[in-house]
Design goal:
The structure holds 2 protein chains of 2 kinds. Chain A has a domain at 1-30. In chain A, 56% of the residues lie in helices and 0% in strands. Chain A is built from 3 helices and no strands. Chain A has helices spanning 2-27, 36-40, 58-62. Among the domains of chain B are: 1-64, no CATH class; 71-158, Alpha-Beta Plaits (2-Layer Sandwich); 479-507 and 614-729, 3-Layer(aba) Sandwich (Rossmann fold), CATH 3.40.50.1000; 508-613, Calcium-transporting ATPase, cytoplasmic domain N, CATH 3.40.1110. Helix content of chain B is 43%, strand content 19%. In chain B, α9 runs parallel beside α12 (272-290) and α11 runs antiparallel to α12. The longest helix of chain B is centred in the last third of the chain and has 34 residues, at 722-755. Chain B starts with 22 loop residues before the first strand and ends in a 16-residue tail after the last helix. Classes of the chains: A mainly alpha, B alpha+beta. The A-B interface holds A 1, 4-5, 8, 11-12, 15-16, 18-19, 22-23, 26-27, 31-36, 39-40, 42-44, 47-51, 54-55, 57-58, 60-62 and B 49, 80, 83-86, 92, 94, 103, 106-107, 110-111, 113, 120-128, 132, 134, 170, 172, 175-176, 179-180, 183, 186-187, 190-191, 203, 205-206, 209, 213, 801, 803-804.
């Protein structure tokens, strides 16, 4: 019976990992723009490095 | 515009027809100098892949802005609005570029670092049409950056609105909620299987494990994911209106309470899977329906039309000043193509003001020194100076916006249906309670809760949200963007359509012209084009564009007499262009807009100008006439009446010289008669009527121009499909009714179990998802079929995208 408990824990934690991955990807704007990424990767050379996200730091700018 | 040349040449950069003097570079043709400059710029920097990704992806550079346009970005306070981050070396800025439309735009904007070494990186968000830029502030200023973007054809759209408010944060709460609900639903379903399939006596302790886990997993759904429903229901109750969320919340509460009770008392497994399933599906439907078109704004007011800053003359110098800081008595410098931001008096220069957006007049109005001009017009002449007599917030235009219309509180028929449904369910529950009270009081609680659980109108809600969501999506792909799902119902009920003329039925800025009189010889044609090209008057410009002026000739004795016409000597021939009085010397009253031609003091003929109607308008009116009644309200004069009456049919009401208020009054009058009115307009002069109407459709050319507040935004090129959009909305309503009948059938089956008090979790677990899923498939499928039947594309990629081919 302990095998089932183990399996249960395993399955739940795998599912939790996927939930975590989902939340992470939403947080990192992966659901914001469905158009650009599939086209961007087809351009011949890499146009630019990723921009670190600073949209949350906006207040810091306005604060001065 | 009709061209006299045989072969149509299109611009290599922007795809516009090359009407006037064609500019060539190698084998490539360009419509204007601006387009060629952009091509050369990209060519030098090795960015010609721009033209390989999509054919003619450029933005027409015909209307170039003056060089100090972005001077206001040197103002730290204004610039800070666009800066998202700044440190010692680099600055991060974000601009809205409405011109973004294809993968070429993406390519070019993300390769800006190859155009200017100061740009470190750039990234486009296609959905919001924004570009985030990282640049070295030592090498590039905000102003230079905006100029750089403009030089490639992507001019940042900066309006007064940007100064006013913080950008709203993107709300991702519902995505998280959906994720959590999906996770819990799937796991609870898995953990419930053993119970349904039957556990052996020796596995009893396992059963308790499963049940406990189910309780734990259901908590986040109950307390977190279902929140939007609680909020909506609470809002409804506070407004004394029983909306569809109320019975759903009741069902969620009852299901959760009874399930917890069953588990704690050890009497059963509860209905956790049903509850989480309902929440998950309903959240998914709601997301589909509420997926707004983020790049479009339906709530625009004058602030997104007005510029953020203007040039104010201070001590003889032009100083760029934020618009709210402009005071009465300031002198503004208005350049070509700029908006007049406040009511004022012209003190220097000449105004040639295009009011088509504000009043609906199709031709620019000429204003002289000392004349009063109203805010909102666009200067199409040269530079002028204007003394401000009324502050921006008090001008005529802003007063149009500020007028508050009485807000109509309307509710979707879904809510009304669900209300009756709820009363019926409560009635059945009471009946069941009375019945069991007589025969077996122990089963009262069981039967009543079962009725409430099973009769939850989630199937109805699901069918309407998914159908509406699907229809909003399909319409969006086809160029009609609706504000919300309510608009679908409103469109379905339309009985009367009111059109605006200028900019809605006609193409703004393009006029048809027709020549009447003695035929012109090639020499004469060339001369007319040449002479007309010397003037900035809109009619002269239209004439010059009409003819191909390939080789240059000298003009002697050129003279422009304001308000009358032009004259000059070309190759020894005397040519006059202008009003009848100017050309022939005698007076004649003519309601039409004409330019008369005189050749060596002999009258030859005249060019008659008329509005250029959008393609497919004839068919549109014919088709719409069978659906509903039609009216046309124009702010313009009535020179086009016969043509419009023929176009719209004899039954149509056509009124001219209508003020914005007149239009709203007309719409209200129709509504009093019980008509459901759709107003189709484009300009500020329609703004009041758009709000007054049951469905206000703002027509936008190219999807990037400013539209007044409305219920829906339509791509101007799709206007001819309006009848089909209306039919589609009517079909949508029928589909929702059909799915409602289906969901009632399911409910009858469920209730027949429930009132007998033997609704097992297994039956609930099968019935709920089965009914929901089958209804989803039916509504989704039939909506998609209806769209195909009407010739709408149901997929997102309507544009030619060469990257993928």
């Amino acid at each position: 019976m302990s095998a089932i408990i183990l399996l249960l824990i395993a399955s739940l934690s795998v599912a939790a990992v996927f939930l975590g991955a989902f939340i992470w990807s939403v947080k990192h704007h992966q659901f914001d723009d469905g158009y650009s990424p599939p086209r961007r990767m087809l351009f011949d050379d890499h146009p630019s490095e990723d921009i670190p996200d600073h949209s949350n730091n906006k207040k810091a700018v306005h604060g001065n | 515009m009709a061209t006299t040349t045989g072969i149509k040449l299109t611009c290599y950069h922007c795809g516009d027809p090359c009407t006037s003097a064609t500019i060539t570079l190698g084998e490539k043709t360009f419509c204007c100098e601006g387009c060629r400059t952009v091509y050369q710029l990209l060519d030098r920097s090795g960015l010609c892949e721009y033209y390989r990704l999509n054919a003619r992806p450029g933005i027409s550079r015909n209307d170039t802005s003056y060089k100090d346009k972005f001077a206001f970005l040197e103002d730290e306070k204004i610039a800070a609005r666009f800066i998202t981050f700044r440190d010692g070396q680099e600055t991060h800025a974000c601009f809205y570029l409405p011109q973004i439309h294809c993968s070429s735009c993406l390519f070019l904007l993300e390769n800006l670092h190859r155009l200017h070494p100061g740009v470190i990186a750039s990234r486009v968000n296609f959905e919001t049409k924004e570009v985030s830029l990282v640049f070295d502030q030592g090498k590039l200023s905000m102003r230079k950056l905006a100029d750089l973007l403009s030089s490639t054809g992507y001019e940042p759209y900066i309006s007064l609105r940007d100064l006013g408010q913080e950008r709203p944060a993107v709300n991702r709460g519902n995505i998280y909620r959906l994720g959590v609900a999906g996770f819990c639903f799937a796991n609870i379903m898995l953990l419930s299987f053993p119970e349904y399939l039957g556990l052996e006596r020796s596995d009893m302790f396992l059963r308790n494990w499963f049940r406990t886990l189910n309780v734990v997993l259901s908590l986040p759904v109950f307390f977190y994911s279902a929140q939007p429903f609680y909020q909506a229901a609470w809002k409804g109750i506070r407004h004394r209106f029983l909306n569809i969320d109320a019975p759903i919340v009741l069902a969620i509460f009852v299901t959760f309470g009874r399930s917890i009770y069953e588990v704690l008392s050890g009497t059963g497994a509860g209905y956790f899977d049903s509850m989480t399933g309902i929440v998950f599906f309903m959240l998914a439907g709601r997301m589909l329906q509420d997926r707004t078109h983020r790049r479009l704004s339906f709530e625009r007011d004058y602030t997104s039309y007005f510029p953020i800053a203007v040039s104010v003359l201070r001590e003889g110098r032009e100083v760029s000043t934020a618009l709210p800081d402009v005071r009465c008595g300031d002198t503004l410098v208005i350049h070509h193509g700029e908006l007049v931001p406040a009511d004022g008096i012209i003190t220097k220069g000449q105004g040639l003001i295009d009011y088509s957006f504000v009043t609906g007049e199709s031709l620019p109005v000429s204003k002289d020194m000392g004349e009063l001009i109203y805010a909102g017009g666009r200067q199409t002449g040269a530079v002028m100076e204007v003394l401000v007599v009324k502050e921006v917030a008090q001008s005529y235009l802003t007063s149009l916006w500020n007028r508050q219309e009485d807000k109509k509180e309307e509710h979707s028929f879904i809510h009304l249906l669900s209300r009756r449904f709820t009363y019926l369910v409560l009635f059945i529950a009471v009946c069941a309670a009375i019945y069991w009270r007589v025969y077996d009081p122990h089963r009262i609680a069981g039967a009543v809760t079962a009725v409430l659980i099973v009769a939850c109108p989630c199937a109805l809600l699901l069918s309407s949200t998914f159908t509406n969501g699907n229809i909003l999506r399909i319409m969006g792909h086809n160029g009609l963007y609706l504000r919300n799902a309510r608009v679908i119902e409103n469109i379905a009920a339309i009985t009367h359509i009111v059109f605006d003329k200028t900019g809605t039925l006609t193409m703004p800025g393009s006029e048809d012209l027709e020549y009447q009189g003695m035929p012109l010889t090639p020499v004469q044609r060339k001369a007319v084009a040449l002479l007309a090209a010397q003037s900035t008057h809109p009619l002269s410009r239209a004439l010059a564009q009409h003819f191909d002026r390939s080789d240059a000739c000298r003009i002697l004795g050129f003279q422009e007499i304001k308000g009358k016409g032009l004259e000059g000597w070309i190759d020894g021939n005397h040519l006059t262009l202008g009003s009848y009085a100017f050309v022939t010397g005698s007076m004649m009253d003519d309601p039409h807009t004409c330019v008369y031609v005189g050749w060596n003091h002999r009258f030859l003929g005249y060019f008659q100008f008329s509005n250029h109607y959008r393609d497919g308008i004839d068919g549109l009116m014919g088709e719409l006439g069978t659906h509903c009644r039609l009216s046309l309200l124009s702010g313009d004069n009535d020179r086009e009446r016969p043509r419009l009456q023929a176009l719209m049919g004899q039954g149509a009401h056509i009124l001219f010289n209508q003020s914005p208020e007149d239009k709203a009054v007309y719409v209200r009058k129709l509504q009093r008669r019980g008509e459901k009115v759709m107003m189709v307009g484009d300009g500020l002069n329609d703004a009041v009527a758009l709000r007054q109407s049951d469905t206000g459709v703002a027509v936008a050319a190219g999807g990037n121009s400013f539209t007044p507040a409305s219920h829906a935004i339509m791509d101007a090129s799709e206007l001819h499909r309006l009848p089909r959009f209306i039919t589609f909305c009517r079909m949508a309503k029928r589909i929702i009714y059909a799915s409602f009948i289906l969901s009632i059938l399911y409910n009858i089956i469920g209730i027949s179990f429930a009132v007998r008090g033997n609704l097992s979790p297994l039956i609930a677990a099968i019935l709920m998802p089965a009914s929901s899923l089958s209804i989803l498939l039916v509504t989704y499928g039939s909506a998609t079929w209806a769209a195909r039947y009407l010739g709408f594309s149901t997929t997102a990629t309507t544009e030619k995208d060469h990257v993928l081919s």
